[in-house]
Amino acid sequence: MSLLGLNDLFAMTRPAPAAHAGTKHIVLTGLLGRPEARELVGHCRRLAEQGWAGVVVDLEAVSSCAPAGLAGLRELHEGRSGLTARIVGGRWSQFLPVLQAAPHRQLPELRRAIRDLLGAQSVFGTTPGHPAWGG
Question: How many distinct structural domains can be found in the chain?
């Protein structure tokens, strides 16, 4: 996994720390395991210390997520890094390693956690005309 800050990639100017209150966009790629989750959470804590208010974490290019990766994403999602976090681009298939490694009794809790991260679109589908869209 690598952390790719889109604001850094396109060399956007950064306001002074006291003036931030903005949202940082981070694109993750590859495997999201323990070291990667630790790096991500640490990076988000540093962003919070610099005055950033939020972070959007894009999972679209993540190939798979290990249990420690899910724990890190949950930490961000719950705001424990000091930032308001929004997780986007995730798919259930990325979390299959988490579900496969878990004891049966933990599956309902893990499914709820993944569902919370991915949002209602992943549970009901994203196609207009589907009951979740009111059609």
Answer: 1
